[in-house]
Each structure stands twice: as structure tokens, then as C-alpha cells.
Design a protein that fits this description.
The protein has 276 residues and is of the alpha/beta class. It has one domain: Rossmann fold. It has 9 helices and 8 strands. Strands 1, 2, 3, 4, 5, 6, 7 and 8 form an 8-stranded mixed beta sheet that branches. Strand 2, helix 4 and strand 3 form a beta-alpha-beta unit. Helix 1 packs parallel to helix 4. The longest helix is centred in the N-terminal third of the chain and has 17 residues.
Length: 276
């Protein structure tokens, strides 16, 4: 696995991620708002522990019940959404970004959320039912094998999910496949500038928390371009500092020195599938 970031088997990684987010969906574990050590975000300040929830509260279409505070950006801010578009939200969780997007695309558009955690899909569907909305749907499926036809979407969204996927090249290829020619993606994710120590990469808990799954930004953008996307750009970024309590207990002095030289970033990335 050239871009798999853990030594554990892919099946173990997926199971760790599935179990963690299923527990969050059930309410058995907190989201980032009260336990930032296991989530995307900067736990150094009180405001950062609710980094995304606060940002979304001012966004039209925000649904509090769908906000599990698991994101690392607001991709809808940079997605260029328009009325009538079809939007696919990868790793849609309880539906936060999907509900924001549906307000923009309107009754003439539609939003399809995809998540591989059954409990998240169930929670998102319950939220949609409470809202009484008809232009958003949630389906269960893996990002590396989307249950959608070719050229389904005008826009693909994702928020702090793609770095949970062990095979990013396949995930990017699926994004390309489901986009229509001329369509674009806008995703928020975690990347690094430098290499994370192996001890961090081996931590399934950090992997499920959007950190150990991060790859170098240049490699991330390069993979998107090799997939065929053009005009790949980063319209927003912020630095993330890992709190001490989020680090593996057995982190060596050498690993800590490497980590001190590695910066971790929350980035929002856009790119376009060329017209054909």
C-alpha cells in the first residue's frame, strides 16, 4: 500500500474507523466538541475544540443535529455550488454538509450522501426525515467503490474523510468517475508537510481521528493530478498542532524530534474533471 499510512492490514484500519464512527453516531463516544484529542482540529485553544461547529452555525442550511463536530473545514464555502446541481458528499456522516448543500442547489438540484458506517447513514436519514426534505438522500457505501453510476455529479464534496481511506488513489479515481466532464470537487482534509513518525502512523486511534492517515501535501495534490484532475488548488488552509494527550504513550525521543519537524495542516482543495 504505497499511500496506506499504517502497517496494519487495510481491513483492520477500516474496522477501526468503522467502529469509532459508529460509536460516535450512537452517542457512545463524543465528537470533537468535547474530545478534541481524537478528532480533526487544534486542541490548543478552547475555540478550536469546536472548530467546525462554530463555523457552520452561521451557514445557511446548518442543522445542529447533523453536526457531530468531525470536520476539518467548510468545503461548501469554496465549492461554487449553484441551483440545479447534483452534489455527492463523500463520508457524509450525519448529513451536515449535505444539508448545507441542499439549500444552495434548491428543489431543482439534489444531494447524495455516501457513508460506509451504517449507523451514520441511519442517523442522516433520520435527520432528513425530521427536516422533511426531498432533495437529499443517503446511501451506504465505500468511497473506494461508490454505489453510484458514472458521471452522476456536478460537484463532489468531502470533509475530513479522505485521509481515513487507506487507498487514496482508488478514492480519487472514484471521485473522477462519478463527476461529469467539467464537474469539480471541493474537499477539506488533513495533510502534512514532512513525514509523520511510524509510531504515529501505527496508531489506529489517531488514524480514525484524521491525523495518522494524512499524507504529504505535495503527494496528495500530485495524486489528484495523476488521477486526471486539472486546476488543482488549495483555497484555504490552517495549521494544526497535536496536543500531547493525542500522541502515542510510547513515542520515542527520536520520533518526537521527527514530529517536531513535521507540520500538519487542514486544507481545502479544489479541482476539476476536464471537459471531454
Amino acid at each position: 500500500m504505497s499511500d496506506s499510512v499504517m502497517n496494519a492490514p487495510v481491513s483492520d484500519v477500516r474496522e477501526a474507523v468503522r467502529d469509532k464512527y459508529a460509536a460516535i453516531a450512537r452517542g457512545d463516544e463524543p465528537g470533537c466538541g468535547s474530545d478534541a484529542t481524537s478528532c480533526c482540529g487544534d486542541a490548543d485553544t478552547e475555540a478550536a475544540t469546536n472548530m467546525i461547529g462554530e463555523a457552520y452555525e452561521t451557514v445557511d442550511g446548518y442543522v445542529a443535529d447533523a453536526d457531530l463536530e468531525l470536520g476539518c473545514g467548510v468545503p461548501t464555502d469554496h465549492a461554487g455550488l449553484e441551483a440545479g446541481q447534483t452534489v455527492v458528499d463523500l463520508g457524509s456522516g450525519a448529513g451536515l454538509d449535505a444539508f448545507v448543500a441542499r439549500r444552495v442547489v434548491g428543489a431543482s438540484g439534489r444531494v447524495i450522501g455516501v457513508d460506509f458506517v451504517p449507523e451514520m447513514v441511519e442517523k442522516a436519514r433520520a435527520n432528513a426525515q425530521k427536516l422533511g426534505v426531498g432533495n437529499v438522500a443517503f446511501v451506504e457505501g465505500a468511497i473506494e467503490d461508490l454505489p453510484l453510476g458514472e458521471q452522476t455529479a456536478d460537484v463532489v464534496l468531502s470533509n475530513c474523510v479522505l485521509n481515513l481511506v487507506p487507498d487514496k488513489e482508488r478514492a480519487f479515481a472514484e471521485m473522477y468517475r462519478v463527476l461529469r466532464p467539467g464537474g469539480h470537487f471541493c474537499v477539506s482534509d488533513i495533510v502534512t508537510d514532512g513525514a509523520l513518525p511510524d509510531a504515529v502512523r501505527r496508531s489506529a486511534e489517531l488514524y480514525a481521528g484524521c491525523v495518522a492517515g494524512a499524507i504529504d501535501e505535495a503527494e496528495y495534490l500530485g495524486q489528484l493530478e495523476r488521477t486526471g484532475f486539472i486546476d488543482v488548488a488549495v483555497p484555504a488552509r490552517r495549521r494544526i498542532d497535536l496536543p500531547e494527550e493525542a500522541l502515542p504513550a510510547a513515542l520515542s525521543d527520536a520520533d518526537r524530534a521527527v514530529l517536531n519537524e513535521t507540520s500538519i495542516w487542514s486544507v481545502t482543495v479544489r479541482g476539476t474533471r476536464p471537459d471531454e
